[in-house]
Amino acid sequence: MSKIVDLTGRKIPYRKTRTGTSGGFTVVEKASEKLNDRFAWNCQCTTCGKIRTYRTQHIQKGSIQCRCHNLYAEIQRGATRRNIPFLLKEKEMWDLLSSQDYRCALSGQSIYYNSYRDRTASLDRINSAKGYEITNIQWLHTDLNYMKASYPQEYFIKICELVYNYTKDNQ
Q1: pLDDT tens track for 53-87
Q2: Closest Cα to residue 91, out of 115, 69, 106, 63?
Q3: What are phi and psi of 113, to 5 degrees?
Q4: Distance of alpha carbon 83 from the chain centroid
């Protein structure tokens, strides 16, 4: 039987992607359970901070990549398709989510991102007339962002207050 190489503390860079994103993982510890009958390691993404488990051979080949890059690439493609300026760095986007303590900026609800399809976190442009830049973005719950659409934030909050006050007084 072959000897297990200790990967703890190793830094694994991502391969360059179509969007030019970069970053990597730090191997945190050996996973307590095997993955598909193979040894695995818990690795922390240097961009979003999530810890994910990967098999040894994938780490050694450098064929791992966090799902956070998928969302960044999707937002970037959507901005390009809609001709919206995109001046946001990937790390800025994830640092903001962390600084919001994984809570919606408007409701305070807990939000999360596991993958593009499994998430409640949605990146919002505060002023929809401006592009994606760090001073013009916030993380919202996907339902709230859908309702807010392209309304100015102040108008959206005012409408929500009107609905709340009307239903509270007429129930």
Answers
A1: 888 888 777 777 777 777 888 899 999 999 999 99
A2: 69
A3: -140, 115
A4: 22
